[in-house]
Design goal:
four-stranded mixed beta sheet; 670 residues; globular; binds zinc ion; 9% strand; alpha+beta; 20 strands
Length: 670
């Protein structure tokens, strides 16, 4: 394999730069601009549409509500066509190149001698007062002029460098430094994938990956990640020794003759199956998110860029696998992550506080809170199973969480008059999407329950003020969630809870709110992971049996009842008249304005395993999730690791409903 590759490099290396330029050309290539007189639909916002755009409403009455202008008028107003308009050159969200289309901020003159700080991960500089500037006491400085000359990205932040954090309006004098032929990119030997700079948010290196100069990859026909091109060069390195340790253990070997099969929703799988699932779980590792760069400042910059909020899949796996099996090795794997994030938080308290300054960042402490909670539950219920040192470690994690959250949750300086919690947090609760916040709130819930157990073990009331404050925070968050959401009682005996993705409703019909954008299935399933934590840790705050049943009913309805296609009952192509919605709506909304059938709506996706735990609150929900699949497809979907774990976890949830003190499913069995 390796020699073949080398041979190909030798043959093809002369092509390198040409190929790279061609590649770059296809990445940034723009379509011809429409004529200024072209008719556009534009409501004065940042994006408009031309005829044929799939984002335009199909319903003519809806379409008539959007003002018609000319393309010239629209662009003069600073707007561009949306990314899905026919022939549009605007890149969509998440696709590279968007900043090139953003209107430029007015030019500002800066003193060329202004001191700027050089990042450790990407070749970027920031001003002294930049909110994204981390650990400045540990950073090299340049003058603005020197940074410009060196080709640094100036005042850029975010995963692809699209955010302008400082030095706004600076007009550079020399071009930005781009990736070169010799830039080291990483990846495996498989064709048709992108090669990245280590640290790219689209890349998860494993120890078998190669590190080679860009020109060699390109000569072999590989492509360069467009995000890496957009973001520009990196500065961080990983030693060979650390590289050899990268990635999860990946050491699962299936027993001979074993074929994965779905677990039953009614009966527990045999112990031998559970043991296999445990091995599979362990082979996926501890999911520490940052790479082991030689410069720890680069690690912390990467940490700041990570998304922890849905939450990290493998942490959720470990958590659910522990609850479903009680396996000590699974707990220890989660503990590795907890120790890592505890250490980071103690070594870099200001960075940890910045990361946790809103509910999206709080779940970076998920494994810390989960381990503390489980340890203290065990210590209280089975004192013989837990050592004093383990209780101490749990307390350490909790103390760290408290110190990280102090600026966010505590302090009575500027309380929101309505919510009675710090104003910044209250404002956040009013604006942030629930799906992004819920796992942070769930992490707080686990922390509260763990602190209560700790107090009872230590026979103290030392943590009571913190517990009270966190409870207040959770309560206020939930009261906002309940108020904006809708507990629909249109179906007798089956209350359903639905909520908006975007804040706000359009109107009310028969007492049911019609949301501007109801939550879609995928995001609802992430929200549910946070609700699950609250159900387990702090049900008295409202996420109780009754509420979870209303969630289950809503999910059941949306996965089994079709809605008319094309807005107000219009026929779609091919004569299909109805479809399952990709959104979770109450019966009234599903009839009046079925969002999943509108152009911006998500299409339905079957077998979402993140909903499977709801089997504990409504029989048949796993089957309902698979209603569009035939027997073979269903078997295939439900045999994979994620679906087996999710099915097993639904058994834990069922058992927990009967015994609220149940720590894990194998408790009490030898
Ligand atoms: Zn469009
Ligand atoms: Zn900055
Ligand atoms: Zn990349
Ligand atoms: Zn309703």
């Amino acid at each position: 394999m390796k020699t073949q590759l080398l041979a190909r490099i030798l043959v093809a290396s002369t092509l390198s730069l040409v190929t790279f330029l061609q590649l770059a050309g296809t990445i940034t290539g723009h379509a011809a601009e429409p004529d200024p007189n072209t008719k556009v639909y534009w409501n004065g916002g940042k994006r408009g549409h031309i005829d044929g755009c799939p984002r335009l409403p199909k319903d003519t009455a809806e379409l008539a509500k959007i003002p018609v202008k000319s393309y010239g008028e629209m662009t003069a107003g600073g707007a561009v066509l949306c990314s899905r308009c026919p022939g549009s050159s605007t890149q969509g969200k998440g696709k590279p190149g968007r900043k090139a289309d953003a209107p430029q901020t007015p030019a500002v003159v800066y003193d060329p001698g202004t001191k700027v700080y050089v990042d450790a991960l990407w070749f970027r500089v920031h001003a002294e007062d930049c909110p994204s500037l981390l650990l400045k006491e540990r950073k090299r400085t340049l003058t603005l002029e020197e940074a410009d000359k060196a080709g640094c990205r100036i005042g850029q932040s975010g995963q692809s460098g699209r955010e302008n954090c400082c030095l706004q309006g600076y007009r550079r004098k020399r071009p930005e430094k781009k990736l070169s032929d010799d830039t080291i990119l990483c990846g495996n030997n498989e064709k048709r994938n992108f090669k990245h700079i280590a640290g790219c948010h689209r890349y998860w290196p494993v120890r078998s990956d190669l590190r080679r100069p860009l020109k060699d990859w390109v000569a072999d026909g590989f492509k360069v990640c467009p995000h890496c091109i957009e973001r520009g060069p990196g500065l961080a390195t990983i030693t060979d020794e650390e590289w050899k340790k990268l990635g999860p253990p990946d050491n699962f070997v299936a027993p001979e003759g074993w074929v994965p099969k779905p677990y039953s929703a009614d009966q527990l799988p045999p112990a031998s199956e559970v043991d296999i699932l445990i091995k599979e779980t362990l082979s996926k590792g501890n999911a520490i998110q940052e790479l082991p760069f030689t410069d720890p400042v680069a690690c912390m910059e990467m940490f700041m860029g990570q998304r922890f909020f849905f939450p990290v899949t493998q942490w959720l796996n470990l958590y659910q696998a522990y609850r479903s099996t009680g396996d000590r090795h699974v707990f220890d794997m989660l503990l590795e992550s907890a120790r890592h994030y505890n250490r980071i938080s103690m070594e870099y308290p200001a960075v940890a506080q910045l990361k946790a300054s809103d509910p999206e960042g709080i779940p970076f402490m998920y494994s810390m809170a989960a381990c503390a909670r489980i340890t203290l539950q065990l210590a209280k219920k089975h004192p013989d199973q837990v050592g004093a040192n383990e209780i101490e470690e749990a307390e350490t994690f909790l103390r760290t969480i408290i110190s990280v959250l102090k600026p966010v949750c505590e302090g009575d300086g500027s309380l929101d008059p309505e919510m009675g919690i710090p104003r910044k947090l209250a404002d956040d609760f009013r604006s942030r999407a629930y799906n992004r916040a819920m796992n942070g709130i769930g992490t707080l819930g686990m922390t509260v329950a763990a602190l209560e157990d700790l107090q009872s073990l230590r026979k103290t009331k030392e943590y009571q003020p913190t517990i009270d404050r966190y409870r207040k925070v959770i309560r206020e968050f939930l009261s906002n969630f309940f108020n904006e959401g809708h507990l629909c009682t249109k179906v007798a005996g089956r209350p359903m809870f639905v909520y908006p993705y975007n804040k706000g409703k359009i109107r009310e019909v028969n007492g049911c709110p019609i949301f501007k954008r109801p939550e879609d299935g995928g995001h609802y399933s992430h929200t549910l992971q946070g609700l699950m934590l609250l159900y387990q840790a702090t049900p008295e705050l409202g996420i109780d049996d009754e509420f979870m049943t209303a969630v289950a009913n809503a999910i059941y309805r949306s996965s089994t009842e079709k809605v008319p296609l094309g807005g107000k009952g219009k026929k779609a192509k091919g004569g299909k008249k109805e479809t399952l919605s990709g959104h979770v709506e109450c019966p009234t909304a599903a009839k009046v304005r079925p969002f999943g059938s509108l152009n911006d709506g998500h299409t339905y996706s079957p077998a979402r395993e993140r909903f499977y735990m709801l089997e504990a609150f409504r029989d048949g929900i796993i089957d309902a999730q698979c209603i569009t699949l035939n027997a073979q497809q269903k078997e295939a979907a439900n045999s994979d690791y994620d679906h087996r774990l999710a099915t097993l976890f639904s058994h834990y949830m069922k058992a927990l409903r009967k015994d609220r003190s149940l720590i894990h499913l194998r408790e009490g069995t030898p």
